[in-house]
Amino acid sequence: MCLHLQCQLNPNLRNFTIRGLWATSNPYKRKQNCTGERFHFQNLSDIQGELSDAWPDLKRSTCSRGRWKWEWELHGRCTVDDPSIATQHGYFEASLMQKYKYDVLKVLESQGIKPDSTSLIGEFQFTEVLQQAYNHRMALRCRRFVGSKPTHNYIKQGVKHVRQPLKEESNHEVQIQQLDAVIFCLTPQLQLRDCPYDYGEKNRCPSGFVFAQFNHSSDSNEIPNSGDC
Questions:
Q1: Could you tell me the CATH number of the domain that includes residue 33?
Q2: Among the ranges 159-173, 186-200, 207-221, which has the highest mean pLDDT value?
Q3: Which of 39, 73, 101 is the last residue before a domain boundary?
Q4: What are 65-105's pLDDT values in tens digits?
């Protein structure tokens, strides 16, 4: 995201963040703009610190209230019929619990795959590691990578993945993609289920992509503070 938009990232960002928790109706049609309770920031006072770390506004990490308000009013109000959510506080707390429950970075690193802006990782390799860990299929989305051409790729050796130099190829320019999102699909009871094969059709990842470093030097731009949060 931040390779295409001006961002003001937390310099300590070293992990995935929450993009959203979105209600859908079969066949995975996103529900949004539901009526209901307006956003009240004071309802989140006890989890504000956790949200600031796990669900920051990437365009202005020092003040994420606007992002939370947007997500609640566009998507969150469509989830309150679920008794496991029910309220605004329940929506954000459930989102945090899902992030804590599924530590994607820890799983990948246990198999030798680390964020690295100089290396390509195979889409099959990446999804296989997650599917083996969670016994369900995730969806991936990618965006155009703006950076130096990768010099290495990951190969599987035994049970782990290792980097090796890329072999010299033709001068044919291929547009490199980078991972933008890992999508988990959930049941109404907030349990994992397989994502449909076509769920990530929009901005779908190619057979190989860059799993870029968090807070890559080209990701963050200084943005003047536009006022109080």
A1: 3.90.730.10
A2: 186-200
A3: 101
A4: 999 999 999 999 998 888 889 899 999 999 999 999 999 99
Q: pLDDT category, 61, cuts 50, 70, 90?
A: low
Task: Give me the sign of the Cα torsion angle 197, 15, 114, 160.
Answer: negative
Q: How far is CA 15 from CA 47, 189, 215, in A?
A: 19, 26, 9
Total domains in the fold of the chain: 2
- Of the candidates 49, 30, 2, 50, the one whose C-alpha atom is nearest the C-alpha of residue 181 is 2
Q: Please report the sign of the dihedral spanned by the C-alpha atoms of residue 184, residue 103, residue 3, residue 13.
A: positive
Domain residue limits at 168 = 104-224
Stated pTM of the model: 0.84
pLDDT of residue 113: 97
Q: What is the C-alpha to C-alpha distance for residues 101 and 115, in angstroms, rounded to an integer?
A: 20
Read off the tokens for 163. Answer: 């980097």
The pLDDT of residue 9 is 60
Query: What residues have CB less than 8 Å from 146, skipping those under 6 apart?
Result: 3, 4, 218
